[in-house]
Amino acid sequence: MITEPLAIFAVLLAAIVFSLWMTKRFAWASRLSVVMWIIFISALCSNLGLIPSNASLYGSMVGYSVPFAVAVILFTVRLSDIRDAGSPMLVAFVLAAIGTVLGVVAASLALDPLVAGILGPESWKIAGPYTGTYIGGSLNFFALWTGLEIGQPDLLAAANAVDNLTIFPLYMTWMIVPAWLAGKYVVAPRWKPHHPEEAAAADTEKPPLDPAQIAILVFLAVGVMAVSNWLKSSVIDAYAPSLPTILIVTTLALAVGQVGAVRRLKGAWEIGDLAFYLFFAAVGAMINFYQAVVLSPVLFLYVAIIMTVHFTWVYGVGRLMRMDPGVLTIASVATKSGPSMVLPVAEAKGWRHLVLPGIILGMLGYAIGNYVGWAVANAVKALLG
Fold first, then answer.
1. Is 215 a member of any domain?
2. How many CB atoms are located within 10 Å of the residue 7 CB?
3. DSSP assigned state of 190
4. In sequence order, which residues have a C-beta less than 8 Å from that of residue 92 and are 6 or more positions away?
5. Shortest CA distance to 279 belongs to which of 58, 49, 4, 8?
6. In the prediction, which pLDDT does 9 show?
7. What per-residue confidence (pLDDT) applies to 202?
8. Number of helical (H) and strand (E) elements in the chain, helices listed first
9. Looking at residue 242, what DSSP letter applies?
10. Rounded distance, CA 235 to CA 229, Å?
11. For the chain, how many structural domains are there in total?
């Protein structure tokens, strides 16, 4: 067994490289996200005894990679863009976010005996990541998982697997329900989507990354982390000791990202993704395959309740308000998956005019998901007593 920390780190990097190569080289491999492959291959290495399932290196990787990734990716969020989404899209986003909150609360209360069997008295914490991920996507899920100190790598692996598998029924819902609703009622004029001029397609050729800009982004992200840790220990702990550091990181990163010079820096997504890949590799190495499989059914049921309530609320209230089904659908997509799924869903339905507003909503979800997730988790804690 490899036990030297640097050698373990090399194995985890090899798992990342191999996962990225497979998803780019083979169509069958690309059907699963690169995250799933990183987790699986890293877990395979530890379950087969190549590397240990418990090493101090893993804790360091988890502790530093998530806040770093959150900070550097949030540097790309422009709060001033929110107004460009238009009032119908913003109202739909609020509806979708409320639907998520209602679904998470319902699932947490209904399944608390099962979740408590896994997390004990801290069962309320699971509401945080699931609220975050169904308002802003996986960025918020992993931020809140670490911010609320849930731990449980087996549970995290099961949660990530469930999250990836449920995208298929979600996609079918986004495809079928709008077509069915379209003939059921007339959209009220005030809730029709705005049809701006088609945005120019993004350049297919990206400019090469500048090492100086990468260095600045890394410096800013590490600086945000350092200041956040100082604020947490020296100031905030005296008044709100339960406030997770990730919320401070989120706030400072959003503030820094509003500076024009920071927004123009290139490479934030690339280094943010790499940081998350390191996190997933460390989590994978700590996984026990058997435990992950055992925990999955509970999470499937949890997610099923969330999305049933979410869709019932979004399309039910949206229909009562006579809102455009396309607007409701793209808002739902933006809350569940962030910007990444907006384009494929909009393209498949022929809603090109909703692509840019949907992406803006996805970025808005990134910005608020951590706050709402933390608030909902604490609300569930209060409800459970």
1. yes
2. 10
3. G
4. 314, 318, 323, 327, 328, 330, 331
5. 58
6. 94
7. 40
8. 18, 0
9. T
10. 10
11. 1
